[in-house]
Structure formats: structure tokens, C-alpha cells
Design a protein that fits this description.
heterodimer, A: alpha/beta, Glycerol-3-phosphate (1)-acyltransferase, 6 strands, B: 2-enoyl-CoA Hydratase, Chain A, domain 1, Rossmann fold, 2 domains, nine-stranded mixed sheet, seven-stranded mixed sheet, LarA-like (chain B), LarA-like_C (chain B), lactate racemase activity (chain B)
Chain lengths: ~230, ~525
Amino acid sequence: MPGLAIRLAVTPSVYGLEHVTEQGGPFIFVANHPSQLDEALVRNALRSVVPRLVSVAVEPRSGIRGLVDQALSLRSASRLSALLKSGTSVLLFAEKTRTDDGSLAPLDLGAAALGIRTGVPLVPVALLGTFRALPPWRITVEPGRPRVSVLFSRPIRAGSGDESSAVTESIAQAIEVGLAEESRGWYGARRSPADGAVPRETEGRPEAGWRRMWKATATPTGATRRRVWQ
Amino acid sequence: MSRPGFVLSVDAQTPPLVVFQGEKVLLERLPIDASVLYPPEALQGIRSLDEAIGRALDTPVDSEPLSALLKRGSRVTIVFEDLSQPVTSRTAPDVRQRVIELVLERAAAAGVDDVELIAATGLRRRLTAHDLQRVLGERVYASFAPDHVRSHDAEDENLEVVGELPGGTPIEVNARVASSDLVISVRLATAVGNEGAAAVATKLIGAKTARARGSFAAGTAASAASSDATNTDAFDDLVDTIGDKARVFTVDVTLTPEPTGPASAFLSKREREWSLTDRALSAGLQAATRILPARARIGLAQVSGVGYGVTSVVAGKPSSVHPLTEAFLAQQQVAQFDRPADVALFGIPNPGTIGSSLNPVTAAALGLGQIFSGATAEPVVRAGGTAIFYHPLTPWFHPLHDPAYIDFFAEVLTQSTDPAVISEQFEEKFAADPWYRHVYQTSSSNHALHPFHAWYSAAPAIAHLGDVIFVGGDHGSTRRLGFKSASTLADALEMASDSVGLAPAITYVHGAPVSISEVS
């Protein structure tokens, strides 16, 4: 039922799921968190692959979700390790804070530490278009079934000898490459780091707040559907 | 090592056996004492494909790792198999996409900007944007379309000469490929000989070169000289490099010969070992075949005929990799038998993944190609014996892909079925016709020479055999192709008894033939 609701509200595209299906679980999915739509979208994408999934956000959630997190001790690393051992996958929204324009904030080291501690593969997940579809000031999703994408990167395996900061850096880079696909295309996003360019549009020279917001909510310019008379 | 093949002698206890007949799957009872040649069972597909491809790219055969060959500022062309090889999955990305993504990730990390992707179509139809997207995936296609991803054009005016055929015809190849620094060739094979020549350049040549290379006279000369070990091909020099500077790096992927998806895997199993689920699936398929109209049956094949497993990935220098791939496939797939039979039986399925039926010329060429290059190393039927095929040979041609086939069937085969006569009287007319060139270049049609080459490929088998009979074949089109049609196997054996006697040795080659996708 939630899957149907998601498909009625937005047009989801899922890429890279084969990286997950080819390996046996459990996994630690580490995603950016621009919107309230994110958790349902990832759950919907993984419904046939990962049957058991709990989600945790580094920034404490408010309302009933926050109470549930607290009651189940989901914010404790040992509890999450026990869940992973029992075969349950974890979806972590690992940004330390939520940005006002949906861009990626620095990641907490906890996700990488959990991966190192348990040896479970970390899968970076980039969520595109969800901020535009459901920004924080809206209660319902933007009409017209906006296009949103869930991009799964290749799993990162971390062992006991790895530094959590280095692992966090590679997770952040994978998510940033995914986010850059929207503006630069699949090849362009992967090509940029070779020149030392930062794929993120927002880094480098700081932009005024209104410009960032304008960009984050702009309708994508690419053709959304094939037109016959073009 | 997979489970080896074996020869079953049919007795009263043998259950009815699976026989493909176009889009139908029949369960046929064979005569007592007939032999059934089961090929070795397919290997399990590789589970962790990314790892296997990555390992092949990083530890190639007789070559530096791919990352070391990719340099900033170099001109790189990725050449990939077209739909002559099956699309390996309906739901997950195709294996070509998986390989190309990993190759491109390495190219991006090396800072390569000048990348182009070309489908190695030879004289086959050029791929549509939809086909390219299906093979490469949405993201790769969107990154390079519309200017940097395309199909090879055999009628292109800007081809580059890189050698000469024995008759003096220049070898013209795709200019982009010849001018590249590195050509990465992604090749797929489902069975022995299915991969084509060692040189990928054979699939990237111009129409004039292809005509000289594939002409009937050249074919007969090649088969006459095939016993000569010193026989060399003009393309031998183009295996590892094309032209002066284009170095070739190949990634060879082998697939299971038949779909291994859960819905259709039972078709390649041995009938005696069918589980209850297999029997239920078979009963369901039989019922669907009876009830559904032909068009819907094609749709059914499209759903069930996907899910090919990947059995090996090897990368490196083409002259070193190609023999490894061939040997691997031969070891996995060639069936052994004692002596050639008087009568051989073959089923010809419709391709599962292209969504249409085979036209009669293609079906006949595919079936007859099995006589010499099928599941066995030697012809399964003796010289002068009879081959019985199962295919409806419905005179239906794809309106977009087959305009040259339509005219070949209507104008050429009504005059003669002799390849020598056809080659002399009609080939030039078709090759020079501007209309065929136009539809080849703009409407995804097969090239005008394609039906000729298909027919020539069947010629050695026709010469080897006494009779060719199609069970369930459309009477008119079977006669036009120069064969006989029968409505049942009993009738076909009765018709064959004139030449092979009343108690012939019968061998049924179980399973699908070499290529069940579009015929090359």
C-alpha cells in the first residue's frame, strides 16, 4: 500500500539496485536526507530485495517517530549492531544537520564506524529530486507526479583496519557523484573528480541563500518525456 | 565444469520430449530406438558480476590493466555487440551495460573526454534509440546521446582503408574506430562460433568489403581451403590493432546457451528429471500455446525467454582472449556422439527477446547453420542424409527490418534457389539499389546484402543433405525455399524413407540451436 501511494504521488526511478541484489544482505544504506519523502522512497525501492529494514537519522527526529526511535533504542550503536547481526538492514540518514536547501551536509562518522565494527557493506544512496517534490514548507507532494531518483552506489566494505574518517569521505564522495548526475549526467559526474573539480554545485564559492533555494526548487530543464513531434 | 551431455536411446518409458517449433513448444514422442543428443548442462551464472568484470579489467590476459591503457586526452571508442546477442535480463541491466559502466568509470577516473560508443552491427539493422537505451541503460545512453553513441554504418562515405582482401578489394572500416587510440570491444557469446571472427573489425566494415568477403564464391573458396592449416584470413592482421594506431582491448563475456530464468529453465532440463513444478509449468505452457493467438505467443516468449546467466568474463589482448573463449565454450557446450545419423531432428525456436517471429529465410538459414556449427563438432547427419526441422516458416516479414528479405523471397527465390545463380544474377542489383541503402541508413532495416549472406550460409548444409523437411512448415514458403513440408513427424519420416530407408538411424538434437536471438 505505501508503495502504491509513492507511485501515485511521484515518478520514481531506481538505478544501481543490481549492486545490492547480487550480494547477500544485510546492508547499511547511507543516504542524504533532503525531504520527508526519502524513507518511504528507499523502502519502496528495496521492498523486494531487503525485506527487513530499520531507518535511523543522526539528527533526532521529532514527534512519534522520535519516540519510537527512543523506545527501540535505535540511536544506539550496539542496538544497531545487534539488528545487523540478526540480518536486518539499516537505513542511515547520516547528515549531522539538515540543510535548508536540501543539499548534502557533512556526514557523521557513526555510519562508517558501524560498518567498521560489524563488517557489513555500506551502500551510499543518493536521493535526487525529493526536495523539489516535497520541500519542508509543503504538507503534500508537489502535484504532477514529479520525477525523483534513487541511486544506489557500489557497496563499500570497511574492515577493522580502516579509519572511519576515510570511509566517511568515500561515502560522501559517492553520494556527491550521485547528486551531480542531475546536472552533469552519468559520465560527467564521474569525470569531474579527475580534474579535481568538486562535483557539488554548492561548494566552492558560497552562494546567496535565495539563489541556492531557487536552484534547489527549479524545474529540471531536460526533456522529461519523449515527445512525438520533436 | 558442468554436467556432461549424453545420448539417450528412446524406449517405451521415455516421456514426450520438448521440441521448439517457432513460438510454440511441443511435447513430441519420438520413435523407439531414436537417439536424443543432450548437450552438457549450462554452468551456473556468476553471482557477483561486478567483481568478475572488475577482476577481468584489472588482470587482463597479455595486456596491461585497462586503467593503465586509458590516458588523459586519448581517443577511446567502445564497440559493443548489437541485438544479434540476446538481452540478458528483462528487469536488471543488460550485461553489456554492466561491462560498459565499469569501463567508463575507469575512463572517467583517468580523465578521458573523447569517448564514443558504437554498436558493431555489421550488415545487420542499425539500432534505434530505444534499442541503444535498452542495451546501454538510461544513464549511459543519456550521457552520450545523440552524437557520441550510434550504430556502425556500412554505407558511410567516410570509411578508412586499413588493408586489402585477397581479391584486391580494400578493407574499409569505420573511420572513428580506425582513428582511435584505444578500441574497447565488448563481446558476447552464447555458443561455439557464435562470437564471430577473432577480429572485431569484421563487424565494422563497409558494405563493399562485406560484399567481397561474404560473396558466395569467397565462401566456397574458404570452405575448400578450410582443411589447409596454412589458410590465412586478411583480417588476421586486424585482430590486435586496427589501422596504424588503434589498439584493441577486448572484454569477452560468455552466456548460458539458453535462458535460465525460473519460468523457462525447465525447457533445457532432461525430461526424465522434471520436478512437479516443471511439469506444471510445461502443462501451463502447452495450454497457453493452444489458447493464445500467435501474436500473444510471441509476447509469452518475450517474457519467458530472458534471464541469461553469465558464465565467464575474460579481458585482454584479442588474439589471446579469443582462443580462450572458444575453448571454454567448446568444453562447456559441445556434445559427443558416436556416428552420424541418417535422419537428424532439430527444433527452431523463435527469438525470445526481439518481439517478432523469424522470417522463413532467416529461420531456414538458422536451422541449416546447425548442421555444421551446432551443438556438435561434426555434422550430426551423414552426407546425403535427411534433416527434419520444426518451424512454421510463416511467410511473415518484419515491415521495418526486412524490406530486402521481402524482395529476396518474392523476386529472387521464385527464380532460383541456387546460391551461385542468385549471386551472379541478383546480388549486384540489390547492392546498388539506393532505396535499400536509404532504409538501411534511416529506418533500421537490414542491409540489402543480408538475405544473400544468410542464404549462402545455408548452402554447405543444403549441399551436404539429401532432403530437408520442415514439420508444420507453410506449404508455399517451404516449396519456395526448395524444401519439403510435412504436418507430423510420422509423415516426415515417411517422406524421408525414399532416401534413407524404412529403418533409419534417427538423432534428435535436444534444446535450442546456437543463437536464438536475431541471426547475424
